UniProtKB/TrEMBL annotation:
GO terms for molecular function: metal ion binding. It comes from the Bacteria. This is Demethylmenaquinone methyltransferase. Keywords: Magnesium, Metal-binding. InterPro entries: RraA/RraA-like, RraA/RraA-like_sf. It holds the Pfam family RraA-like. Its cofactor is Mg(2+). It comes from Cyclobacterium qasimii. Substrate binds at G140, D141, N142, L143, R162. Mg(2+) binds at D163.
Amino acid sequence: MESFSQQISPTPDQIKALTVEWEGERFPDGRPKVSDEYLERLKAISVEEAWGILRNKGYNNQFENDWIILDENEVMTGRAVTAQYMPFREDVNNLVKKNGKAEGRSQSGGTNSWPIDGLVDGDIYIADSYGKIADGTLIGDNLGIAIKTNSNRGVIFNGAVRDMAGLSKIKGFNLWIKGHDPSYIQDMMLTTINYPIRIGRATVLPGDAVLANKWGVIFVPAHLVADLVINAEFTALRDEFGHLRLQEKKYTAGEIDSRWSEKIKGDFMSWLNTKSDLPMSKAELDAYLKDRNW
């Protein structure tokens, strides 16, 4: 009889198959490596703009809101490392620990440290712990320090943490969670790392680019990041120009809020040429305008 043994994490080739539309650089574990430049530019993009672009491309399930946030004034972007937790079942948990040992994972402490051990700079630890709050706290301040040290980022949990006071003292660490509680993690288990997971309304894949701010969290498929960023940046420039001209009473609201005339397009292009703080390079802008249908 053939034995069954599920890996804790997919192989690099399996992650490549899962994210086949990504054509750029990858991590050794197979995850897409969205560039640091795009992650930085993603910070300036609004949730609504990112959501609209993804929805127009048929990606309707990439947003989740209603979070408790440690520092609402900070924006966090990074690359997703996913983890799945389930209610405890002894036979499954025994298999998880057996497979983890065979994969060389740490045997000291709980399995909830395993996703943290593999984090690298720029990663965001994304976990679905099915919204469990009491006895569902995935981390406290010790694991929080480890996360910040390994990734320079924070966490997004469909679940809870403990020791918010201690976590709040970790410089540069932030979190988006559904609750917090003084209890320790009990009666639940880690099942997988870097498989697809559900975070509320959203489906998240390993290597997704994450945009988290006080208005919610967007999970951007890696292969759509570059297109989303340039589109959102251009739309922000259009909005800035439109607001300026409305304040100047140069055009009516109807003229700005509908398809632009050639006169307005020409005015906009002249205005663009005067700006010294464009979010994209001139070459990127020229390439984008060449294909844009106004």
